[in-house]
Amino acid sequence: MPLELPGPIGTLRRFRAGVSPGARFGNVSDTMTSQLRLQLSVGILHAGGVLACPTEAVWGLSADPFDEGAVQRILALKRRPVAKGLILVASSMSQLDFLLRGLSDGKLKKLQASWPGPNTWLIPHHGRVPHWVHGEHATVAVRVSAHPTVSALCDLWGGPLVSTSANPGGSQPPRELFQVIRYFGHRLDGIVPGTTGTSTRPSLIRDLETDRVIRA
User: Fold this and answer.
1) CATH code where residue 188 lies
2) For 7, phi and psi rounded to 5 degrees?
3) Residues 37, 99, 70, CA angle at the centre, nearest 5°?
4) pLDDT one-digit tens code per residue, 81-134
5) Most buried among 10, 98, 126, 192, by the most CB within 10 A?
6) Which residues sit opposite 4 in a β-bridge?
7) Distance between CA atoms of 82 and 11, rounded to whole angstroms?
8) Number of domains in the chain
């Protein structure tokens, strides 16, 4: 039967999920532990949902990168063409091993020196991620996040997640939760509690092969 999970502003959203008959979450108070909130958030991800999550600089939208329906919902919310591609965030380099295989020792050391932190790198994907993540590019953008909420969510999820700023195209990326709700309201499936980090701008994006700065 449907699994009920907390929605963005105290409401309940329903998902078809692989849970035992009768499994159900009811109303959850604001005092529940962060770990339980993270577990509920991971449940939303497994059910194909889209989350809002604080990151180093702004609030972002996250989903399972291998769930086409979830990623397409993010693209529709943002009015973002699939060809542009999306960023993957992880809690450790080991979560990105499937993408880092074959890189030279020099390139791996370059990544290690910059992570965890607000540094996003474009690396060749070799078809190891779906087209709805890498878009029209031969590379995919990846980052090991230093933000405690993002890191904890990826740890509990067990791998990388899509992360893209929680705003429609052309609008200001949100630093505060009320902006996220103003943009998307009940169209989101859940909100991971927390606050944005101290960075004043989104992460630096560079090409791992050439060191060319794509976004300063």
Assistant:
1) 3.90.870.10
2) -90, -170
3) 45
4) 999 999 999 999 999 999 999 999 999 999 999 999 999 999 999 999 999 999
5) 192
6) 14
7) 30
8) 1
